[in-house]
Amino acid sequence: MEGLLLAEAVRPLYARLPLAGGAWRFPDERTAVLPLPGLDAPGDALWIFSRPPTPRLALGKAPEDGTPARTSFQEQLAARAVGPLEAVRQAGLDRVLELDFGAGTGFVPRPAVTLVVELTGRNANLALLNGARTILGVERVVLADRNRYRELKPGIAYRPPPPYAKLDPRRASAAELEAALQGGRLDQVRRVLDGIGPELGGALIAGCGLAPETRLEGEALARVVAAIPDLVRAPSAWLVRAGGAPGLDARRRADRREREARVLTTAYRHRLEVARKRLQDLERAAEREAEAGRLREEADLLMAYGHQVPVGAAQVRLPGFDGAERELALDPRQDAFGNARKRYDRARRLERRAERAHEGRPAAEAAWRQARQAVEAVDTLPDEELHRRAADLAEATRRRRRPSGPGIRFAGPHDFEVVVGRNARENDAVTFRLARSRDLWLHVQGFSGAHVVVRSGGAEVPFDTVLFAARLAAGFSPARHSGNVAVDYTLRKNVWKVKGQPAGAVSFSHQKTVYVTPARDETAAAAGEDRGEDA
Predict the structure, then answer these.
(1) What is the overall mean pLDDT for the chain?
(2) Using CA of residue 475, residue 476, residue 482, residue 486, what is the dihedral sign?
(3) What are the pLDDT digits (tens) for 90-135?
(4) Per-residue H/E/C for 444-481
(5) Strand, coil or helix: what is 359?
(6) Range of the domain at 325
(7) Are residues 33 and 102 located together in one domain of the fold?
(8) Strand ranges, E, within 198-261
């Protein structure tokens, strides 16, 4: 994001600071949204798009749903940047913004932190700093072997990108602008003026109505110098007039299209690779038809001259039907006729495979052409068709996610899969092999019983799904005949096994408790009633 656009995007924040923020939301792994209820126009949330090569920052409406963290850095951001937004800093017109968050109050106080937003094209990144400007976490780790100027990793002092030595157009007078631009080309203005990159440089060219290679002298120079203050005041308006779309809605649509196109392209390329390998397999099977003919000829020779083959021989030389001698390798454990039968059997298998290969080749070639066309067509699909195909692919993927493995599987509310262990060994497998760190883990309180896991895929688990799984945990325990059973639940990352503990025995922390009616099937689990929740 270019410096002038970044300065314009955050301009409404300065007059309203400090601002109390809401809970962070994360629509995807490279988008962070901070609701700012005290902010009016142009929206009530700060959107940070850090995905290269076109990172952006904008103010807009907060998403309606509370989307949880999807990466470890996002988890850290949500946990640490919880105080009010107290300051926003942009050094000159650099593409780097610093957001200072005050200390968080609550049951566990959080110290003040700074979020550094580097919107530097393909090197875009986010870094979370403490008061001493030591890096606490970084969205994308950068080591010395990739960037010799600076590293970005937890535990070291933060070093900003090198600044540009350019003229700031916001503070330059007309005379200073004339002196800096005199004699240069119009398409090279962005090399002289800070905060102007390819987008705004193109908008300036279009707005002035001059050719990109125009030399800035005389009337052309005067026209450009007169236009620059207006460009500085409203850079996004210049982009819109030039055909750009810097708005938040347009950016969100573009990001959605980019994500869905990437997912579809990956899936279609996989299909293309599968189809290519299928064609190769069919070609190899067809080519081995000649080997089947050779095996039959050798079998015929063994049948014709079997009486000449010594018992237990590993190879033999026999006269061929064309008069030339043939040397045949034999299985010494079988006689000549047994070796002939093996060759006949092998030949029949190869012939059947070759026949199936010839029959299946047209369909395989059609599948390969279809996959190739699908890959090539992704970039040209209309948005509606792209969204439909992405949704169909997601639904097909979801339906395939019924993996075999330990435990009894139930389809919970909101399509979360719930897995129930049936014995001590299976409990260990469900908890430590199947479950992931952000899956929900449940166990009846005060009794031995099933380990129950809600496979969340990192998403937030709704409370009715928690109750559904808790009823199953109570139902698959010795407390299943009770009317009101306490069930503890926590994230799987809070569950561990102490060395020497027997199978099924675990320790856990940070749990909450619900009181439920036991159930042993989906219908009863969905229809049960709970009494409440204890933290």
Answers:
(1) 87
(2) negative
(3) 998 999 999 999 998 766 788 999 999 999 988 999 999 999 999 9
(4) ECCCCCCCEEEECCCCCCCHHHHHHHHHHHHHCCCCCC
(5) helix
(6) 271-379
(7) yes
(8) none
Neighbour count for residue 318 (Cβ, 10 Å): 18
In a domain, 300, yes or no: yes
Structure tokens at 16: 């309203």
* Phi-psi domain of 350 (left: phi exceeds 0; alpha: psi -120 through 50; beta: other): alpha
Q: Give this prediction's pTM.
A: 0.54
Chain CA centroid to CA 272, Å: 21
The dihedral sign for the CA sequence 74, 79, 82, 88: negative
Q: Looking at residues 160-180, what average pLDDT do you find?
A: 90
Which residue do the tokens 């890959």 mark? 375
Express each pLDDT in 334-370 by its tens digit: 999 999 999 999 999 898 888 888 888 898 899 899 8
Whether 403 is covered by a domain: the verdict is: no
Collapse the DSSP code of 436 into the 3-class scheme (helix H, G, I; strand E, B; otherwise coil) and give the result. Answer: coil
The first and second tokens of residue 496, run together, are 């561990």
- Number of C-beta neighbours around residue 108 at 10 A: 8
CB 438 within 8 A of CB 484: no
- C-alpha 419/C-alpha 405 separation (Å) is 10
Q: Is residue 155 part of a domain?
A: no
The number of distinct structural domains making up the chain is 4
Strand order in the sheet with 125-129: 85-90, 96-101, 113-118, 125-129, 135-138
Instruction: Yes or no: say if 152 and 138 are a contact pair by the CB < 8 Å rule.
Output: yes
Contact at 8 Å (CB) between 128 and 77? yes
